[in-house]
Fold:
Amino acid sequence: MDYLNTFNAWVMEEESEWVPNENVWKCVYYFLLVQFLGLSPTIFPAFILIMEIYREETTNLLFGITDRFPTLVIAAAAVSCYWINGFLWLAWDFYAPEWVQKKYLVQPKRQITKATIWKVIKNLLLNQIFTVIPLCLMYDIFLVQKGLGIRIEDYKSFPSYFRLVKEVLLIAIGEILIFTYGHLLLHTKTFYKMHKTHHELKQPFALGAAYCHPFENLISNFVPFSAPAMLFRVHPFSQLFMALIAVLGTQLHHSGWSLPWYSFMEQPEYHDKHHELFIVNLGVTGLLDWIHGTGADSINKEPSGKSIFRSNFENPNKQSKKMSKKKN
Structure:
């Protein structure tokens, strides 16, 4: 515990002894922002406007409402972002010119029906009302109000770029690790029945990014983003920043659109391949999939010795092939 307190004290430091120039850390911050969001001509400027140019107004507006329930406030901002951005993506799904669809859709024959949209909307509302709100209230009451978790007392002062970069990286690394191993767990035969809901969308679209079973909503959506912030006691702005990044990122990963300004990123092709083949590309990036032998190139290979998961994976594709053979 002493080591963690010492580490958290370093995380809180606003200036770097080695690189005291704040402009250097500002450049690092923008570099990370591009890696997270790409160079979208709409999302990137909007994010900069709200979270950079009007950052003080944003934080004062949100956390000035109440300093007793900051996690709930952050969740409300993230949920609002999810619906707004999700419906904008949905409008693009339906009204993008035909030549754009043929050129940039990962699955050009994708069809999104009204029935699917309503099913997704009902699922999202149920998860947000019955899992997100209660979990945020528990987090605030049992941690934040007892001086644990995010440092709500810091919200009136904006963190330096040095501190912001440290906290953003810690949350990102924590999220990648927790999400990936939680996702691997959900694909095992024991837990796949709860992950099966999400994989009903074989042709994913942005609004359906968080379409899932309530248990998965806890394992894959809430814990990965709240646990690092709780452990490292980050500034509330850092947690708000990463919550919005997480929403925009997961909707990009599920959008099905390989647009030019995302060409330097692995997404959305990387995750789209996961929805197509089920047992590959389970991580956020390719590193952990490479380590565990779950990359897309492993689909036609037997599980390697380095994969402790694949031999225990539930593979719906194999089951459907067996069923079709029996029918024939």
Residues 173 and 228 are 9 Å apart (CA to CA). The chain has one domain: 2-262. The first helix runs from residue 2 to 12.
